[in-house]
Amino acid sequence: MDLPPGYEASTGGRFVCKLNKSLYGLKQSPRAWFGRFSQAMRRFGYKQSNSDHTLFLKRCEGKLTALIIYVDDMIITGDNSEEVERLKDLLASEFEMKDLGSLKYFLGIEVARGSSGIFLCQRKYVLDLLTETGMLGCRPADTPIEQNHKLAEYPNQTLTEKARYQRLVGRLIYLSHTRPDIAYAVSVVSQFMHNPSETHMEAVIRILRYLKSAPGKGLMFSKHSHLDISGYTDADWAGCVTDRKSTSETKGCGQVKC
């Protein structure tokens, strides 16, 4: 942060300016913006979630309204249409807002709404990833990881480019939010982020080849009148070839009201 042009010359460089409010681009600005937004949401009667501070909830007469925000992009949803419209008006009176209509795309996730429910996928995200890695024309794989794989540490193997490996695995981790079919394979390759070898990179490439076979797969939330959540868990027995630890996995699914 520097003095405005002309001030330094007139003061001899012996003075500083005190800001009356945050300016765009300062390192403190995101925190100041979110603090002001949170105060406004609490004033509107919304409760900030303890597990995710970007989520705000309001229950009224058995109905739920929710808002989640990422920087200055937000989703407003719920089964109380009157409260949703009221919240839009309150936010517009407090901040400069732009209503983009029904949700279709958010943070790389595509949203399709139909009579049977809501479908989430990351098709564009997958195609962009394949294009970036030069694998858009690759031969598809039937599975994301080899059956009965024996991936482990390979100290005698040639190391691969660490930064590229970490970047690809990081993108696959985000993709697995809507692609549970690659979750196990991604969890395996993510164990070698600190010291990846060529064999580990080949496993990452196989996941990309599998994604080529069906880039538009995703999650379908069927239309129902309740918010019940079911969970499933399973584990193998001493499946890790390096330390014989077991691998467990838990899945949750819910039926949402559209």
TrEMBL record:
<dbReference type="InterPro" id="IPR043502">
    <property type="entry name" value="DNA/RNA_pol_sf"/>
</dbReference>
<keyword id="KW-0695">RNA-directed DNA polymerase</keyword>
<dbReference type="InterPro" id="IPR013103">
    <property type="entry name" value="RVT_2"/>
</dbReference>
<dbReference type="Pfam" id="PF07727">
    <property type="entry name" value="RVT_2"/>
</dbReference>
<protein>
    <submittedName>
        <fullName>Putative RNA-directed DNA polymerase</fullName>
        <ecNumber>2.7.7.49</ecNumber>
    </submittedName>
</protein>
<keyword id="KW-0548">Nucleotidyltransferase</keyword>
<dbReference type="GO" id="GO:0003964">
    <property type="term" value="F:RNA-directed DNA polymerase activity"/>
</dbReference>
<feature type="domain" description="Reverse transcriptase Ty1/copia-type">
    <location>
        <begin position="3"/>
        <end position="146"/>
    </location>
</feature>
<keyword id="KW-0808">Transferase</keyword>
